[in-house]
Design a protein that fits this description.
Blueprint lengths: L2 H15 L7 E7 L3 H13 L3 E7 L1 H10 L2 H16 L3 E6 L12 H21 L1 E6 L3 H6 L4 H12 L3 H17 L2 E6 L2 E6 L6 E3 L4 E2 L3 E4 L7 E5 L4 E3 L2 E3 L3 E5 L2 E6 L3 H8 L8 E7 L11 H4 L5 E6 L18 E4 L8 E4 L2 E5 L2 E2 L9 H4 L1
Parallel strand pairs: 1-2, 1-3, 3-4, 4-8
Antiparallel strand pairs: 5-6, 5-18, 6-10, 7-9, 9-15, 10-13, 11-12, 13-14, 15-16, 16-17, 18-19, 19-20
Helix pairs in contact: 1-2, 4-5
């Protein structure tokens, strides 16, 4: 990626996403492959008069650590991380994974205790600090997207530099409508699902916490989910990609889970009680992201999509569910993916990926580009 584009991206992260000010402390964490952008972030932070701190991540080393993790060991690490997050004002996390299956051989029990012990410190910064997460272009990510590295670099810049201020304004009517809504119904091939979002806040995501971005999220009332939802995109978790995932709920609880690896997916949902309840419901609107690539930071923002999330609820839209997992699963409702409808209180608000109501049409792709 050219230096000028990296500088533009760094300025977006520093000024729009975390709104870094002079004398503030920013933790910049990134994979070793992301050093070109990390250098731009350090230089940009200094230009703002802020204090940057760097941590480099190496997945190969981390895989060796994961294989032997014990609770006592992780608790020490979690305490360190919490102190670190308490000491900074903002966090910028630049992922640059070359192989998303790097951790697929780690036993599920090690993943479980990682989530159990480390999630409290992670959710501390998610809920109490300004933060942003970005995926850096790598050969592995370009391959997942089915593109050459140079083409993927161009694509990433396009999706990351959408007019987020315009998007944020267009999202406000959807946020207000969601906060007035009680009953939601989702209908698609293999999907007929109902739940309530009454009394749960809706949150606009327009470039502050994720780059790329483009979603409005809330959470179902915990015991209100009934019916079946079938996902038409790959669902990746802990280094394993699941396909043809179908989940059935009764009074909020997941009672039947199917996939191409049914036994393994049910092991994940057996992590704890909260793993069988939903912590998030969101609608994706980024006009530049159209096809799934197996990377959730992109896939959950696909225009004409929604995602439904077993596990932990976010504090901003909290339905009380607690879990060591938070697994976003994406359903695309555009015609080429089988179509579908979203109803709020029995009124059709989106059909085949396009918003119907006049106040929401500003979120359709032609309006946001």
């Amino acid at each position: 990626m050219k230096d000028a584009r990296l500088e533009k991206l760094a300025n977006l992260l520093l000024n729009h996403s975390v709104k870094l000010q002079a004398k503030e402390r920013v933790l910049i964490r990134g994979h070793v492959h992301t050093k070109p952008l990390l250098k731009e972030l350090v230089d940009g932070a200094y230009r703002l008069g802020a204090y940057p701190y760097i941590e480099l991540i190496d997945d190969e080393i981390n895989r060796h650590l994961y294989m032997g993790y014990e609770k006592e060991q992780l608790q020490t690490y979690a305490d360190w991380m919490l102190k670190e997050y308490e000491d900074v004002d903002a966090i910028i996390y630049v992922t640059g994974e070359e192989n998303d299956a790097e951790f697929s051989e780690v036993p599920s029990e090690k993943h479980r205790i990682w989530g159990e012990i480390m999630n409290p410190s992670t959710f501390f910064y998610v809920n109490n600090r300004r933060w942003v997460l970005l995926n850096y272009p790598t050969q592995g990510l370009a391959q997942k997207a089915g593109m050459s590295l140079s083409r993927f670099e161009d694509y990433l810049l396009d999706v990351c530099t959408v007019d987020y201020e315009k998007m944020g304004k267009a999202m406000q009517p959807l946020k207000e409508l969601m906060e007035r809504t009680d009953k939601v119904r989702l209908v698609s091939p293999g999907t007929d699902l109902t739940f309530s979002i009454k009394g749960i806040p809706a949150v606009v995501c327009a470039g502050e916490n994720n780059i790329p971005d483009g979603e409005v999220f809330t959470a179902p009332v915990k015991d209100s989910v009934n019916g079946t939802i079938s996902f038409n995109t790959p669902c990746t978790y802990q280094g394993t990609t699941f396909r043809d995932v179908s989940l059935t709920f009764k009074n909020g609880k997941l009672v039947d889970a199917k996939a191409d690896q049914t036994e393994k997916i049910n092991q994940i949902f057996a992590s704890d009680e909260g793993a069988r309840y939903i912590g998030e419901f969101a609608i994706g609107v980024n006009p530049m992201i159209k096809e799934p690539m197996g990377d959730i930071l992109f896939d959950e923002k696909i225009c004409g999509s929604l995602h439904f999330t077993p596990g932990e609820a976010y504090e901003e839209a909290d339905n009380g569910n607690r879990s060591a997992i938070h697994w976003d699963m994406v359903l695309i409702q555009r015609p080429e993916y089988g179509g579908g409808e979203i109803y709020f209180d029995d009124e059709l608000i989106r059909k085949d990926g396009l918003f119907i109501l006049s106040e929401l049409r500003g979120l359709n792709p032609d309006a946001l580009k």
